[in-house]
Amino acid sequence: MFTDIEGSTRLAQMLGAGYRPVLTEHRRLLRATLAANHGVELFTEGDSFFIAFDDAAAALDACVTAQRALANHDWPAPEATPKVRMGLHTGHAVPLAGEYASPEVHRAARIAAAAHGGQVLLSAATAHHAAPLPADASLIDLGLHRLRGFDDRERLFQLVAPGLAREFPRPRTVDEAVHNLPTQVTSFVGRQTERAELTSLLRDNRLVTVVGAGGAGKTRVAVEVAGPLVDSYPDGVWFVDIATVTDPGLVAFAIAAVFGLRPEPGRPMIDTLVDHAAGKRMLLMLDTCDAQPGASAEVISRLLTGGSALRVLATSREPFGLPGEVVWRIPPLSTEPAPGGGPSDAMALLLDRTAAARGGRRGGLAESSELHRVVARLDGLPLAIELAAARLRVLSASQLAERLDDVLGTLDAGREDADEGLSAYASGDFPGVAGNQEDTIDLNAASLGEARSPQTRAVLRSATQRHATMQATVTWSYRTLGPRAARLLRWVSVFASPVDLATVEWLLDDDPLDPLAVLVDKSMIQVEPHGTASTYRMLDPIRAYAARRLVDAGEEQGARDRHVAWCAHALQRVFHGADGRSVTLSLAELDPLADELRAALRWTATGGSARLGLRLAGGLDQWWRERGLAREGRLWLFRLYGRIAETGEPIPDAELAAAYHMHSQHAAADGEFAEELRFAQRAEAAAQQAGDAGLLARVIAGRAGPLIDMGRLTEAERASRDVMEWATSNGVGSEALVAVLSLAELLWQRGALDEAAELLGAARPLEAARPAERGRRTVDMLLGMVALARGDLVAAHDHLVVALRSRMAYGFRSRACDSLNAMAVRCAHGGDPKTAARLFGAAQATRTPQRGAGGLFAAYWSHEQAATRSVLGDHAFDAAYAAGAELTLEQAASMALAVEHPDLAAGSSRFVVEPETARHRADPDRDGDETTVSFRDPRTEGQPPHPRRSRTYRGALIGDGEADTP
Question: Which residues form the Guanylate cyclase domain (predicted)?
Answer without folding.
Answer: 1-112
